[in-house]
């Protein structure tokens, strides 16, 4: 049944408000309430909203704003230093997680290709969960924030390469050959995007803001346009919109209105994030749970334990404190929304079957839930379970 967008918003936000109230009384994270509501009302539940694709598209804007706001809080010089350190960790940890995922999937009897895809899907941590649970204003959390963000962005780059590789392998199977330009495109285009953004900020955006700095409506429009414009430009040249939004945020941090932008956009970000987590729950097919629950639970348990251990070990080798290593590891302990994209693309190209795709999907959602509980009960977060740990 087709419903208007107004009806869909009514169902999502009224339902979220009710479940969020229950969650608050039960001292549970609001994020879980949104995912549960999506599973209940989505096409695989009561089908109140039977086509969540529009909601999913809108929800993606929340992630773009999230990365934009995070970029606003970072100084470019510190970011470059941090990325040098994070690159080795991102590469080594991704290789370890891919090998572990491949090995355990093989033990469950999946084919070599399916095991490879499952291994690739296990490499990444969730940009959305990791950033959402990260305090952005608490000064004592700056270093951890920069480290977590750097690792997630590097994983995003690796994830883009993996998605392109899957598409290229599919083309090769269809005799269209491997597109090598697509493989190296992100590595060429990212520096170009940064240079263009820096030049536009210096010679266009800052002069405009200085000239019209008394008109807040104009500044609001400029900042929104800058964020979404860079996100679209990044997408156009083969990068992710999230990377474009982050570059927009880091370059906007060079302007005198960075804090004004950060405060202005937070309510807008939260509005779209509710939609995102609802669409995440709505995308999961509850009917396939009996077929995939055992491998999904075992894989989720393995990676919830393995990821903190690996990050703690690698960070300790780079002279970070054990406490820092554990916290980064637990904050990155979940699988990524990129795993869902990998499963979707591999299924669509025939590389994996439906069961393997849903193992990836179920593992990601289980790790989303458990990792969130671990972080909000142990570390500072905007949605922490205690007032002592609650930081925005």
TrEMBL record:
Location in or out of the cell: Membrane
One family name in Pfam for this protein: Na_H_Exchanger
GO biological process: proton transmembrane transport
Main location group: membrane
Keywords: Antiport, Ion transport, Membrane, Transmembrane, Transmembrane helix, Transport
Name of this protein: Sodium:hydrogen antiporter
Membrane topology label: Multi-pass membrane protein
GO terms assigned for molecular function: antiporter activity
InterPro entries the record matches: Cation/H_exchanger_TM, Na+/solute_symporter_sf
Family statement: Belongs to the monovalent cation:proton antiporter 2 (CPA2) transporter (TC 2.A.37) family.
GO cellular component: membrane
UniProt domain Cation/H+ exchanger transmembrane: residue ranges: 17-372
Protein's organism: Litoribrevibacter albus
Keyword Ion transport: yes
Bilayer-spanning residue ranges: 6-24, 31-49, 55-74, 86-110, 116-135, 147-167, 187-206, 218-237, 243-264, 271-288, 294-315, 336-354, 360-381
Taxonomy, superkingdom: Bacteria
